[in-house]
Every structure is written in C-alpha cells, then in structure tokens.
Amino acid sequence: MKQITKTVVINYIVSRLYRFLFPLLKYRKKIELFYLYDEYVECKYKYKFLKYIPFYKEIKERPVVSKELYKKHEEKNWENKYKLFLPKYKMNTGGSTGEPYEFLVSLKCGLIDDLHQEMQHRKMGFLKNDKLYVINGCEISDLDRKNSKFWNVKSKNELPFGSKEFSSHYLNDKTVLIYLEELKRNPPQFIRSYPSVFVYLTKLLIDSDYKCPPLKLKGIQLTSEITSKQDHDFLISYWGDIIYFQYGHSEAATIASKYPGEDCYTFSPIYGEVEILDENNNPAREGDVGRIVVTSMHNIVRPFIRYDTGDLAKFKSNKNGVTKVYDILGRQQDTVLDKNNNKISVTGLVFGQHFKAFKNITNWQIENFSPGLLNVKIIKGCNYSDEDNNEIINKLSFNDSFVVSIEFVDEIKKTKRGKHKLVVSQC
Fold first, then answer.
1. CB 327 within 8 A of CB 265
2. Is 316 helix (H, G, I), strand (E, B) or coil?
3. How far apart are CA 192 and CA 172, in angstroms?
4. Which pTM value belongs to this model?
5. What are the residues facing 323 on neighbouring strands?
6. 3-class DSSP assignment, residue 372
7. Residue 125 to residue 198: CA distance in whole angstroms
8. What does residue 136 show for φ and ψ, rounded to 5 degrees?
9. Which of 194, 199, 359, 417 would give a disulfide with 137, using CB separation of 3.0 to 4.6 Å?
10. What region does 226 belong to: left with phi over 0, alpha with psi -120 to 50, or beta?
11. CA 347: distance to chain centroid?
12. DSSP bridge partners of 21
C-alpha cells in the first residue's frame, strides 16, 4: 500500500477547507459580468506573494521567461516557500514539443477556470437542462473496446467539462456510426472537441451519406489546437454558424475565447495578464504578429510570471486591461526545414494557402524527417482524384523548396491526448 505522507494529508485538509471557504460569489459575479454583459473594471494586481518565490527574491524584477529558463533552475526556486500550507494540485504540459513539464498549480486556479468554462458556454446559450459532451483523448478499457463502446460517462454535471466523453483514438470510418448512434441516443446540445477531431468527424459523417447534420446542436466549442480559416468555413457550411473557440493552456495563466460574429479572441483579465510582444520584448503594434506572454493571477503556489508560451498571435488591442488578438497562429516551433535548411512556418506552408483538395481529404499529416523532403500521409475521401494529388504536391513544393511524396493510409496515429498533429518533424 502506498505510504500516505504528512505532506499529502496536510494538502488534502487544506484543499478541502479551501473549496468550502472559496469566495465563489465574488469571482462568479465578475466573470459573469465580463462574459454576459461585457462589463469589467480594470484593477492592478500587486503580486505581493512574489517575495515568497526564491527566484524573484533574488533578482527583484520580472523578466520574460521561457520553459528553458525554468528548467535551468530547480523547480523549488519557482515555488512558494509556504507551498506546504497552500491548496494545490499537480499539472503538466502536453509535451507537444517533446518537452513535457510538471509543476504545481493553486487550487484557486482550477476553480477560477471552472467558472470561466461555465460562463463561456452560457454566453452561447447553455440552459439548465442542456447536455454537453466532449470528444477528447480519454482512455477506454479493453472490455469496453471489445464491446464497441468508445465513451465514458463522467458525472451528472454537464458544466464545465461535460457529462460524457468520447475517445478520439478509436474514431474512424468503421466506428463513426457507432459514435453517432450513441450521440443520438441521448443527444447533446453542445459538443467540446479538438478542431482536427471535429473536422475529421464531420468528414466521416459526410462520407457516410449524412449530407446534413444528424444532430441539432446549439454550440460547438473548439479548443487546444489552432484552426485554419478553411477548417472554420468548412464546419460552418455543415453545422451552421455555431462554432466558438477557446484558447488556454495547462499553466493556468490565461484563457481566451472567440464567438460567432466576432473578429478576434478576447483574453479574460480576471484569469491572468497577457502581453503580445515582438522579438525585442516590446509591445506589438496592431496587425503585427507577436509572442503570447502571460502572467499568473491566481497561482500563488507556483506562479508563471511573464511566461513566453511559445505561441504566436496577431495583435489587435489592449484597452482597460483587456487584450484582444485577431488570430492565434500556433507555435514558434511549428516549422519544417526546406532543402537549404531554412525554417518554413507551418502557418505559411499550410494555412497560408487555400487547398481545393481539402474537401476530398478525410485526414492528412505531413512528415519532415529530412531537410527538403515532405511525406504526406492521406486518408482519401470518396471523391479524391489525381487533380487533388497534383495540387497538394505543387503547393507543398513551395517554389521547389521541398520534394513532396504522397502516401495513402487508412489511419493516422494521434498523440497520447488524442490530438491530431498536422506536422511531424525530426529535423
């Protein structure tokens, strides 16, 4: 039996007390006013708790930091010296860049996040008796898979993260109708999903002769990945203008949302402080692309202060403490190497070009294992043709920067979290 340490017992007691005493009404009202009534009074945060963080006690300033800098110092240098008596839990990044990272998060962050999730759905019209289902990378037991059951019942609570979750790992042309049957058995009004997975699901439905949506949904929330305009337009053409987006990360320092009819993402100032900075750490100008740099507002256990997320955004404005960006463009690291060892942004390579072939591809993935070589794995749709083949080769050649080959497959492997990686590179 695992030994229960004094630290575990203390954290359990403190966390239970905090959940009971958490001033929920104060933050609920602020977040509700921000999302549902567009009201917010800017306030300046002092971050007095930084004096208990060894790193900031030594340097007396707030430089822009990265994950690489965090790893150069022991984690205890970034943690509150009174962490033993603070309610907390462990989190980790998804490791999409190959660098997984574990850290502590204040329990307050989780509760604040729950309130934001709830209000984002309410802004889209979520009502008391509505159902919310999630499509993610959840694990399914061997017995359930043998019985063609690819979902788990989570809880009786619909908000903030749904009462039922469907695994993206087993969704394909052979199982899609099993998924659909379960969705229709007790249909949801809202679905939360990764963009790539929901695009894949939609194409599988179309290929299964569902030319119109088999579910009447009020809202589809897409999160955890960037979405191209082409994907967005495709989903709207099928499901209607009910797509809304969320941006956030495990570090619990920021959250942003974008709704139908809006031209930008809005970051919540009640969650964390956000800066969009250029390469010299100066504020980006409107229309410029900059790095998303965030500061924890509620994580006093292990704060992320002016943390460079590695993500890029096209800056719009910062007024009254509310940061807005026209678009979120993915990670600085999302690049491939051409034949001259130049880094080419995936955003420009794929999302900067319009592919007519897109409508005839069920799913695809680009491999870049050697400079200048791209292998494109494709799951063909019903109407895929040689013309689509030629378009993909011509456009991904990028003015002869790459030699492109195409490989037709029946399945594309997902990450452990059930996401689809558009580009896999070992260069």
1. yes
2. strand
3. 18
4. 0.81
5. 318
6. coil
7. 21
8. -145, -165
9. 417
10. beta
11. 16
12. none
User: Which structure tokens are listed for 361?
Assistant: 């591809």
Lookup: tokens for 11: 């954290």
- Ramachandran sector of residue 9 (left: φ over 0; alpha: ψ -120 to 50; beta: rest): alpha
Q: Over its length of 427 residues, how does the chain's per-residue pLDDT go in tens digits? A: 345 666 666 666 666 666 666 555 688 899 999 999 999 988 878 888 999 999 998 887 899 998 888 878 888 999 999 988 888 888 877 544 445 577 899 988 988 999 999 999 999 999 999 999 999 888 889 999 999 999 999 888 899 889 999 998 889 999 999 999 999 999 999 999 988 889 999 999 999 999 999 999 999 999 987 788 888 999 999 999 999 999 988 888 999 999 999 999 999 999 999 999 999 999 999 999 999 999 999 999 999 999 999 889 999 999 988 999 999 987 655 678 889 887 776 766 776 566 788 778 888 888 999 999 999 999 888 889 999 899 889 888 887 889 999 999 988 887 777 777 778 877 6
Nearest one of 266, 302, 273, 276 to 35, comparing CA atoms: 266
Structure tokens at 386: 């040689």
